[in-house]
Task: structure prediction
Amino acid sequence: MTEPIDFAPLAAVAGPLRAILDDVAARFGAGARISRDEQLDCDPFRPAGVPSESVRWEYNLRVPVPPGAAEILLTEVVLELSADGWRATDRSSETEVAYQFQRDGANLGVHISRDGTGEVVVGGSSRCVPTEAP
Result:
């Protein structure tokens, strides 16, 4: 279960992204576990004590690899996200089948080991949302 976001502008962009990521993870079966669900500063090099100018939400899930996981990614996930306006980039390598998707400043990725071991990693981050100065 995810934690509520108490910054309304961030919640407005993170909520829909969480729903998409949950749906993508469900394509690979039950048993998804959340490995990251947090607000992050968009400037990781910001000096300590300096207020954030913008923040994003990062949300990652891991699902046990089902048989045919790469096929699910290529024939279902890539096609449906592309049809929904996500720009797909093949980031596959010798060891994994991986796709990155971008839309409206948000990022989403799916990584699957080519040897069928481990977990399907589904994750993403919202676009950066400006914070209000105190």
